[in-house]
Amino acid sequence: MWALSRKQQDELNSLLASYKEVFTEPKELPPRRPFDHQIVLKEGTDPVNVKPYRYPALQKTAIEKLINEMKDVGIIRDSASPFSSPIVLIKKKDGSWRLCWTDISMDFIEGLPKSYGRDTILVVVDRLSKYAHFIALAHPYSAIIVARAYLDHVYKLHEMPERVVSDRDKIFLSKFCQELLRLLKVEIQMSTAYHPQTDGQTEVVNRCLETYLRCMTGERPKEWVKWLPLSEWWYNTNFHSSLKCTPYEVLYGKKPPIHNPYLTGSSSVDTVDRSLQNRENFIKQLKHHLTQARNRMKMQADKHRKEREFQVGDFVYVKLQPYRQDSVSQRSSQKLSLRYFGPFEVIARIGLLAYKLKLPQHAKIHPVFHVCLLKKCFGNTAVQENLPPGITTLGQVKAEPAAILNRRTILRKRCFLEQVLIQWSGSGPEDASWEDVQFLRNQYPTFHINP
Fold first, then answer.
1. What is the pTM of this model?
2. How big is the CA angle at 385 (ends 382 and 386), to the nearest 5 degrees?
3. Span 14-28, mean pLDDT?
4. Which residues neighbour 217 within 8 Å (Cβ) at sequence distance 6 or greater?
């Protein structure tokens, strides 16, 4: 042992004094401190943000190579358990990750022949795995009925999503649906007005489903409800070119069960033998119909594909939400209502497929339109069919108060305010909302509020 000099002793004492909170005499063992270890950063320095576990590039490549080799020789195999489901992740733009069924799209297929009281299909598609569920509904259906159907068929399997993409159907625009999703912390994203292509994935699924049902039902279209579960299975187990596999394989991590063809006479039970023979004949016929339908759809789609281009200064007509004119103006005959308005002058080209138009100053819709909604004007451009009045920025009719369902008085900022429960025009009682009486008097002076 050697002793410290006087100078060394003074330096040591000074050092210990500067870190006295670290070298204090413990009162118990182990000593209790606010922090076991702490690095004090200089003022203005950004916090350290490093992943806790990082592999060098070479080490990461070696690990991946080793895992792939073990998968090839069968040391690591896909789980065949019916209760196992892998966690499929995809990286989002903000750097975070999302799982399957956290981002979905929803749409309706309407106008089907009534089958066992149902005439509508609710289509729910996971935007990552492309896996879909088809739910039969009956008219008239409300936001409450749709929410219950989702709970019964989708939520019990995949939980609540983080984001829902849909078109501007009145069900998704209803106050009930908007408030319900807000309370569940589910973000809802609407497709762009007059542009169903922005929710193109669901539109493609709708066309596939209609083709399946058309081929399956044949001469008995009113029995499509019976074939809906088989259509769902058929869609989810078919190869998708964008995935390079089937939605079933993405969701469950294994290939779908292989259909084993039945050989006639394999069963000694006559009823079973006939049933399986009928199944084989039906599958052969179905494949033939699907091939014909695919070729027919391609041929018809190619007929409507043509180049359409406009120059700055041209006059064009605008097509506002075809077949859904009730969102633009209320008319007694929706089938015979106007489909094109204008003409309006083209003032700029936006990208390759959109044009900006010179709309009237009172117009409240966005002036940029997809090329498929425009038609060139020939002849006299002075005669114009003006945009209908009373539409919002989304091209929808401005809602008007229709009836007062209830009244109440609330306390807000130490003042008593009178409110009324308003049922809006074009909406049901489930979409009624509480509004301030003074607000209604200012916005709708002609509406009778006093009892």
1. 0.48
2. 105
3. 75
4. 223, 224, 227
